Structures are given as structure tokens and as C-alpha cells.
Amino acid sequence: MSTRLHITGGRLFDPSIGLDEIGDVLIEGGSIIGVGPAADFDGVQDAERVDATGLLVCPGLVDIHVHLREPGQEWKETIWSGSEAAVAGGFTRICCMPNTLPINDSASVTEFMLRQAARAGLCRVDPIGAITMGSEGKSLAPMMELAEAGCVAFSDDGAPVYDAQIMRRALEYNLMLGTVLTVHEEDLSLSDHFSMNESAMSLRLGLKGMPEASENVMIARDIELARLTGGRVHFCHVSTARGVTLIRRAKEDGIPVTAEVTPQHITLTEEAIQEYDTNAKMSMPLRKEEDVQALIEGLRDGVIDCIATDHAPHEADSKNVEFDRASFGMLGLQTSVPLVLRKVRDGSLSLARAIESLSSSGPRCFGMKENTLTKGALGDVSILDIDTSYTLTKDINRSKSSNSPFWGEEMSGRAMFTIVDGRVVFDARKEFAGIFAE
Amino acid sequence: MSYTRPHLLGIEGLERSEVDFLLDTAQEFVAIGQRPVKKVPTLRGKTIINLFLEPSTRTRSSFEIAGKRMSADVINISDKASSTTKGETLIDTALTLEAMCPDVVVIRHPSSGAPNLISKHLSRAAVVNAGDGLHEHPSQALLDALTIRQSLGRIDGLKIAMVGDVFRSRVARSHLHLHRILGNEVRIVAPPTLAIKEFRELGAEIFYDMGPALEGADIVVSLRMKHEYLKDFYVPNLDEYSKKYIVSEPVLKKYAPDSLVLDPGPFIRGIQITSEVADGPRSLIAQQVENGVAVRMALLYIMSARRGELGTEDAEEA
Q1: Selected catalytic residue, list A24, A310, A385, A421
Q2: Nearest CA in chain B to A318
Q3: What's the pLDDT tens digit per position in A126-179?
Q4: Does the reported pTM lie above 0.90?
Q5: Are residues B146 and B281 in the same domain?
Q6: How many domains does chain B fold into?
Q7: CA max distance for chain B
Q8: Which domains does chain A have, with CATH numbers?
């Protein structure tokens, strides 16, 4: 019986090692055992074949910021449905935030998440543990226990670690664990139950605005705390031009910080809210065109390390309400690749930087093993069609929720095959037969 | 001239001709309130629901009187009586009410955009915004415009000064939209915590001092400084605020001797406006309240009559 997978005739593309050539990949026992021309491989005749002709073969894509809602809010998403959305979006690995019910602040919750991920058996799911108990910001969560149970980073995402002393201690404690704090930066006294970006638009719509400064002062604080402690800070969903400037400066100063941006924050401005469209309500809020441009520039030159989706499923009932009462967030897993490739197509991002920021950069931020197309690497590979254009419809949605402002939009590029541990866990030609016209 | 939109959600985006039409229609209704028998059969058989999910006395009673003067059946639903306090969503409340076939739903709601939300889900009833969060209060802006027109004979080419808490005022926002449509010059004057720079993008000039702001103003609009806002640190205390920003006769006499004064109310004597001004010859406050009924009669008339005229096609359009 064959345990080998032979990917043939694709454009092998791994910016982290400068690889860009037509060739084959051979995977056996969960590891890549061959990369290059097919003639170099022995015994491929009995391998399962994936024809990647005309497609881009990349290291497995990784999303280090998703919300899977399980345990506790399974009507929004489960680890299984989130995994299905992930592999359909081209992701081989996702890191899930701890703001579940209960919060992931104990090993039993982490272990439960890992068991559910194994039951789904699709992509790799790495839990992120809470920094503070209940993510309430009052006392530290048992981060060693959480790390031993399998947490790859720590966060109170959805809320900031508001107390600077607790943040300081958490950073110091993590020096021992070698882990990263991935932080949602918001000065709550400035944001004051906001609904959107603070601007002339929020004034006009009469919605409470979150000033940029609410995010920036916390980024500045945590840069100083990283400098003080040597602890590593990763900034979640950066949304402001000023934030990019602060992070650029910190990196120049050698302070151990990294940052992510979401596809929506490099695609949309606050204008997407139009007349109170709750699908465009998120935290961090969508900002202005100059912020979008600064984020793209930061992503281009590496100040922003990676792209992460902040995939935030919500049932329609929590969005079909008054704007100030609506839940924050939108889906991301199945729109990330096409939205990032849109930036490649319009010339604002190179293909190499796009793929790097979707694959190897995220794990590097967390100090995790990076996917790469080399012998001995994990058998995690994403195969994309970067040339196709299509209208995004809900037919392809694998999430339990459908909160996205992008339905009905023209998209370019999509995942065709997702391979985890040498197994094809997603094949668009089978899964979406009849949905995408070939 | 006509108003053919399915709803009235705000002043923003209206055409000048629509504003003129609404004001002309309202002017015709002013006379009814001055008759000994203040009732006409115009809206007999029409049903109007006042869905007031935020405390309101003057706007709610103004809409109620407006409907009743035209013989409509007017039903008031207040915050405590509504199912929203039992956990029902606003959309479900609106759909439930629509199933009872009202012609107009007048809504007051603490959330900005709530009228926009229900208007997307109602296919038959017209939605009239009676004030939503900090967004808009269109009937107030229209009744103020009608009051100005009656007093000055015109509503364009004017200098308007708005004094007070412009930031926490939906009336101020509707005024800004309206004066932009009419081509009036608007100055706002308040401490910088309230007169925020973004108001410039809404077409206002910003002042922190009364003198230059009021200089040559035709109309001074006084806006309430609410005591409960102190906790948000906009001003240290109301005494300090009123020292600088109270609308008083000496200030008006000095900078805007010919000005008339509007106040959407409820106003606080001695804090935002002196009794000398509020009760004096410049004050249009009583006239505003009277015109409020006329404007709301016009809105209810236009919004419900239009349904009958346009028939079923219009439901699809909405």
C-alpha cells in the first residue's frame, strides 16, 4: 500500500529558500523526501499522484490568529468546521485564540481542543493559551502548564492586558518558556465601547469611535516593556499607520517585537461600513486609506511580518442588530488567499512576499518550525491556482457562520489542494466540483 | 417638487427641492393648529405607530398630536412596554408591528442607525426617524428650518451659530446636513473637547470663543449641556462652562444684535441660555414647538399618503 504522495509538474515556490522552478515534490511518512525534477525520484510509480500542472506549489500556509469558538460557542464554529474552512482556504496549520467558554487558561481546555482537532483530522491546530486567568487581566494563567499541554503562544485577544505590571511579569515569565505574547492593543479608557474608527465618518454616523491613539499608546507601552524585559511581543491585527511606524522604530532598535496584519485591514477602509453594515464591524476597526497604504508598505518591507486572518465567526443573529450592539469580527480563512493575491495582482505586493507572509513568517513570529519545500521538512504543502478569477459565493463556505462583507465580490486565486502530513485533506476539484467553472 | 423616498431616515443626502417641499407642506399644516377645532379627516383609516425605545416627551407627544389632528389611529409603544426589553430583537419587533399593517412607523432609538436597520426589513410601512443615537433627528432640523423661514422669510444665505454640546447632539448633525444643502454658513462654538476638528469635514467652522463665532450671525442655536456628560470629562463643571458659553443678551447684543435664537429643548436656564434670552424677543422657542407639530403632520401625511398612491409596486421598491 502506498504511503507516498507525488506532486507533479507544479511551479515549486518557496520564497524562504529562494525556490521558484517547475518540478515535483515527493512526500513519504509525513515528510518531504524529494524536491526537484521527477527524474530524480525512485519508486514514484506506486505513489498517489497530485497533478499540479499550472499551479503554485507552496510550503503549507499557516494562520496564527483564528477564533474557533469551541468549547462554548459551537453554534458559531467548531474546531471541526473551522478546520474545514482552514483547509478549504489553503491552510495546513492554524493557531486558535483562547477566548472560548471557558477561556483556555488550563491544560484541560488545551487538551480538549487538541483532541477535537485530532478528531477532525484535517489541518494542524495549535492552541494559544491565555495570558491571564479568564483573560480578565488580574492574575497570570499557568503558562508553563499550558505550554506543556501544547499551547504555542499566549494571548488575551479580544481584550488587552491592561495592567502594565501584569504584562511585564508575563513577558518575564515567558523568557523561561521561550514563548511569545501575542497582544490585542487597545487602551480601553480611550476606546470606550467603540463601534468603529474615530473619524469624521464616526461623527457623521453617530457611532462611538476608537481613536488610533487607543491602539498606538498600547503598542508603544509594550515596545517599552519588551525592551525592559527582553520578552517577545507579537502585535495582533495592527491597523494604524502610526503603529507601523512605532514597530519599525522598535525593530531598528533591536527590540524583540513582531507583527501581523489581516487581509481585511489591507483591503478595506472604514468606508466599508457604509450605512451601518455590521459585517464591516471589527476590532481593531477598519481605518483610513493612509493606514491601509502604510500597512501594505509595512508588509512589503517586513516591518509587518505576516498575514493572519483573525477569523471571527458569528451567527447572523449577532450581526442583524443595531450597529453598536453587533458582534465584532468577520470570517477570514477562505478569503485570505484571494484577498492577498488581489494585492499581488494590483502590484502592491510581490508574489514572493505574499506567499512568505502567508506561510513561513507566521510560524517564525511564534518561534515554531517553519514549513518549507526541502527534504526532511514536514509534509505540509499548499497548492494554489493564482491565475483564476471567480465570484465568491456562499456555496464554498465551510464555516458554520457566514459573516463576511466579501460575498458576491470578484476574487482572484484560490486553494486547489491542501496537503497535511503527506495526506490530501482538501481537493477543490472534488469538494467544489460544479461550484467553480473550470 | 415632491418627496418620493420610501422613508425619512435623515437629512443627509436630501435634495434642496425635497427640503422645500417638506417645508411648504408643513407650512400648510400650521394653520390647522390655530383653528378652534384642530382636527381634519386627512389620515382617517391610517395607522401610525410611535415606537419610542428611548425616553422622550416632547417629540413623542408632538408626533402623537400630529397624527391625531389628522384623524389617524396613533399607537404609542414605549421602552418599558416593548418586547425588546424581553429580549426580542429590533428587527423582530419591527416585523411584528408591520404585520399589523401600520402606514408609518415613527422610531426613536438610542442606537445610531436603528431606523436604517428596520427600514431594510420593512416592506410596507414607511419609517420616520424621530432621533437615533447621535446620528440624526431630521424632524427637529426641519421644524427649525420652518421656524427660521417664517421669521426671516428665507432659509438660505444665512450665518448660523451653534453653541453648546455639538458633539453629543443628533440635532447638531441634522442641522449641519441641512445647512450644507441650503448653502448656509455654520459655525460651531464649544470647548475643543466637544467642537472636535472632524466637524470641519461636515462643513462647520470651529470656534472656541463666543465673539468671533457669533459675529454677524442671523441665527443662534443653543444646545443642551447635559449634566450627566460630566463623567466623560468634556468640561470640568457646568459653572465653568456657562461662564464662557452661556447664550446671554449682552453677548448677543454685542456680536449678533439682529440674531434670533433657537433651542431644540429641553433647555437648562442659567447654564446654556439665560432666562432673559429664552423668554425675550429673540427667542423662537415656543414657535419651534408649535411648528414641530406642523412638520410632523406634513411628514406623516406625505409618508402615508404616498403608500396609497403608489400601491403595490412601491413595496418592492422599498
Answers
A1: A310
A2: B89
A3: 999 999 999 999 999 999 999 999 999 999 999 999 999 999 999 999 999 999
A4: yes
A5: yes
A6: 2
A7: 58
A8: 4-57+375-431 (2.30.40.10), 60-366 (3.20.20.140)
What cell was used for A374?
Answer: 526541502
Question: Same structural domain for residues B31 and B162?
Answer: no
Q: Are residues B178 and B266 in the same domain?
A: yes
Q: Which stretch of A70-79, A406-415, B29-38 has the lowest confidence by average pLDDT?
A: B29-38
The tens digit of pLDDT for each residue in A21-38 reads 999 999 998 999 999 987
Instruction: Extract the C-alpha cell encoding B179.
Output: 445647512
pLDDT at residue A40 is higher than 90: no
- The answer to whether residues B174 and B294 belong to one domain is no
CA nearest A323 in B: which residue? B113
Helix H or strand E encompassing A9: strand A4-14
Indicate if the pLDDT at residue A402 is higher than 80: yes
CATH (domain of B99): 3.40.50.1370
Residues 6+ apart with CB under 8 A from A313: A67, A69, A76, A77, A82, A329, A331, A399, A400, A401, A403
Contact across the interface for A322 and B199, Cβ inside 8 Å: no
- Distance from the A195 Cα atom to the nearest Cα atom in chain B, whole angstroms: 10
Pair B276, B145 in one domain: yes
Domain span at residue B66 reads 16-136+289-316
Q: Do A322 and B117 touch (CB under 8 A)?
A: yes
C-alpha cell read off for A39: 527524474
B59 and B169 housed in the same domain? no
Q: Which residues pair with B128 in a beta bridge?
A: B8, B106
Report ipTM (2 d.p.).
Answer: 0.92
